[in-house]
């Protein structure tokens, strides 16, 4: 992210140390993850030790210190989704994508993640592709959903 | 809209809004909360707008977009008034018929009505549907009456009249007394008496007092707070304002879970509207009451639902709980007296003020007053959010409102209280829902998740599921919790993989004691509950896994084999096509077989077979 962009975010939160979580959220929103150089710059500007920023960024699940794919696939593992077969859906996604949880496919197209509950339990099992919710997922529907996203990415 | 700067002006504004409403004018209400959006409600709304325009009806019919109304299984819901017709699972393609048949022709579109699965009868009105009939929707029911983005809508149904009432008639001490007498207890899990919390906070010395709304709803399978914040944010904010007045606070925070973007958006908008109207800020409604609220988004950590961890997170730190020798009501956020209540607790406050303590205490049981919203989910026919009076039995909720078990399974257990709670077996489901009774049987009220499990749910797998969750979400501060949950997970995992040993159950019980006794906060203290309750009520399942290397529910992969029933297989080949591991062989119209060594037990064939021929043993 450009230094100017980070400056704007820091300014918005008045360089408040206590707003560090919100600042990191905004920085991540723009690029899907938190690059090391951005964290170094924030540490310099606020100023707070880089170790503290790293502690926040590694403590909260919402942050990623690694680049993530164009499409982030989140599998809901809430209890309602679990009893309705979410683990099988997750297994199938791992198989189809050839990656494990927290990894990105080689072509940079997909990242596979899990979330503890999205609070849309009636539709379980739920898989979110980017911002699109897919309810009542089955292992069989995983394949066609991935194909669809691969196709749209090529176009 | 100009500022509302006195109590009289609020009454006047309300009257003006009501005068503008034409009761004869048709209104089409469409749900569009997170669940409905996932089912495509936004396209339905768009199609309706276009269709009305096409038919020259724009402006003649009002469209009201609401948050969720509970019946998530049937989203999106479309209601037509004044006829009071409810259409369910509406697709964009259905809109043309609703407009031409119902809005223009005044006829009912039968295919979109709710149909009773047993009698086959259709139901016209929302409140006649069994799912809604047995509920007492005093708090959640308002979701259907208002557009959550409109402060006017909330004012029209009497919004902020409770705040006006206390500012006009009561001293802060009197408000505290009312909440104490109402018997309201925290809806977030612990069930601590709200009035006592307010009183302690009010009496604690400090430079400043804070109030916080805990909207970090992390229990998997529970989403009542999302439903309220998305569908009626002002009810929560009004509760906070009354609380702030009673406690003597001028600054509040709403801490919203990271995974709830729409809830954050709606509550932020609601706060902005209040500022514009002058209902937040200095000298609210012309009184000496000053108050403002900030929304803070969480970082996706379950532990931040714990009060001290939440406050640490608000201060920009890692969300680690601290020991509570000194309570947060005395020293909380920035070391100042802080009152923290859950979303649903706050939403109860205006109701108590408006309807009175006597009315409120007439609902519920001796120790649990009012209603509770539950998320009724899992293997149940009618999934959704339900609001019921305390004291109703679990059976009534699951059978009358939920319509019983989905598919052809049999009820095995109901899990309440999330990862801190426990599984309640069928033999106890005639028990009334009450804070103290639930604790007695080894579960807890929790925030309100009610997960229904059937005979195809493995209880050892469920215990493993929760322990996996807890080991991931443990903040790591206490060794007993950090290491203990991990060890418990490993033991449970070994049992589900067929590597369980004699003595494992006793080992789990020992570890449970250590984790519970040695941990600082409720996450660790209650972590063993899902394990202990499943051992207590479903010990035979644990033993089947350990001694017979068998999973009676057919869930644990290492202990099951897939095969094809010779008598039922038609040789259609669907299973072979869907199998990702190429484990199925067979010619068209001949019996197919599964190679157990190649099979990855993914369940694709089981789901795909139309003849019920795939067996799991």
Describe the structure.
The complex is a heterodimer of chains A (155) and B (617). Chain A has 2 domains: 57 residues, no CATH class; 84 residues, Glutaredoxin (3-Layer(aba) Sandwich). Chain A is built from 7 helices and 4 strands. In chain A, helix 1 packs across helix 3 and helix 6 packs across helix 7. In chain B, strands 12-11-15-13-14 form a 5-stranded mixed sheet. In chain B, strands 2-1-3-4 form a 4-stranded mixed sheet, with helices on one face. In chain B, strand 17 and strand 18 form a beta hairpin. Chain B folds into 5 domains: 98 residues, 3-Layer(aba) Sandwich (Glutaredoxin), CATH 3.40.30.10; 210 residues, 3-Layer(aba) Sandwich (Rossmann fold), CATH 3.40.50; 84 residues, Ubiquitin-like (UB roll) (Roll); 89 residues, Up-down Bundle (de novo design (two linked rop proteins)); 56 residues, Alpha-Beta Plaits (2-Layer Sandwich). Chain B has 617 residues and is an alpha/beta fold. The interface between A and B is large, with 46 and 59 residues.
Could you name the key traits of this structure?
heterodimer, A: 155 residues, alpha+beta, 4-stranded mixed sheet, 7 helices, 48% helix, B: 617 residues, alpha/beta, Glutaredoxin, Rossmann fold, Ubiquitin-like (UB roll), 5 domains, 5-stranded mixed sheet, 24 helices, 40% helix
Topology:
The complex is a heterodimer of chains A (155) and B (617).
Chain A: H1 3-12, H2 20-31, H3 36-45, H4 50-59, E1 71-76, H5 79-83, H6 86-97, E2 110-115, E3 127-129, E4 132-134, H7 139-154
Parallel strand pairs in A: 1-2
Antiparallel strand pairs in A: 1-3, 3-4
Helix pairs in contact in A: 1-3, 6-7
Chain B: H1 7-20, E1 27-31, H2 34-38, H3 41-54, E2 62-66, E3 78-81, E4 85-87, H4 95-104, E5 114-115, E6 122-123, H5 130-133, H6 151-156, H7 161-169, H8 172-182, H9 194-203, E7 210-215, H10 224-231, H11 233-247, E8 251-256, H12 261-277, E9 292-297, H13 307-314, E10 338-342, H14 343-355, H15 357-361, E11 371-378, E12 384-389, H16 394-401, E13 411-416, E14 422-425, H17 435-440, E15 449-454, H18 459-473, H19 479-496, H20 504-518, H21 522-526, H22 529-547, E16 562-564, H23 574-578, E17 584-585, E18 593-594, H24 604-608, E19 614-616
Parallel strand pairs in B: 1-2, 7-8, 7-10, 8-9, 11-15
Antiparallel strand pairs in B: 1-3, 3-4, 5-6, 11-12, 13-14, 13-15, 16-19, 17-18
